[in-house]
Design brief:
Pfam families: DUF397 (PF04149). This is DUF397 domain-containing protein. The chain contains one helix and four strands; from the N terminus they run ββββα. With about 60 residues, it is α+β, with helices and mostly antiparallel strands. The protein has one domain. The protein has a four-stranded antiparallel β-sheet with strand order 1-2-3-4. A hairpin with an 8-residue loop joins strand 3 and strand 4.
Length: about 60
C-alpha cells in the first residue's frame, strides 16, 4: 500500500517571497514540498525525525 500526503498546510513563516514550503501528513510522519513547484515532489520524515527537526527549529539551531 502506497501512502499519499494529505492535509497540506503552508508554513506560517512563509511570506510573499519565494521561500515557501508546505507540510502534509503522511502515515505517522510528515511530508514537505516546495509551494511554488509542487510537481517536483516531496520528502518525508517519520515522527521521530520530524519531532527532532521541529525541536531544532524552535531552538534556532539553523540560524
Amino acid at each position: 500500500m502506497t501512502l499519499h500526503p494529505e492535509n497540506w498546510r503552508k508554513s506560517s513563516r512563509s511570506g510573499q517571497n519565494s521561500s515557501c514550503v508546505e507540510v502534509g501528513r503522511i502515515g505517522d510522519g510528515a511530508a514537505v514540498r516546495d509551494t511554488k513547484d509542487r510537481g517536483l515532489g516531496y520528502f518525508t520524515a517519520d515522527r521521530q525525525q520530524w519531532q527532532a527537526f521541529i525541536a531544532a527549529v524552535k531552538t534556532d539551531r539553523f540560524s
